[in-house]
# Entry
Amino acid sequence: MKKALVVVAALMIAMTCALLTACGSEIEGTYKFVSMTYNGETINVGDEVGGYVYDENSFVVTLNKDGTGEYKEGGNTMTGTWKQDSGDVYTLTIDGASLNATIKDGTLTVEDEGRVIVFKK
# Structure
């Protein structure tokens, strides 16, 4: 009986570790533009503003497992880092500027200079 309990406990620990690793890996990956709100106006994928049509590649964020990342906007690529503050709240640091972000269910929401940009993995 004791041996069976030890085996069950070991299996539960192994499953917990696997689940925690899987949860952490949900954050890493590439997030593509969905929408942006600025000054009360919302721009969605497919919208045209000033002759420019926004598509999912207009803004792209890549978060790497090692805490580094990349932000692409308008043909410019900037590098940076990311860290989890608590729960779904993160800080992205791009070219020295810190941005507040939340990541939940494959959706990344970033606040930057009055803009709220939503990305989907």
User: Anything to note?
Assistant: The longest helix spans residues 2-25.
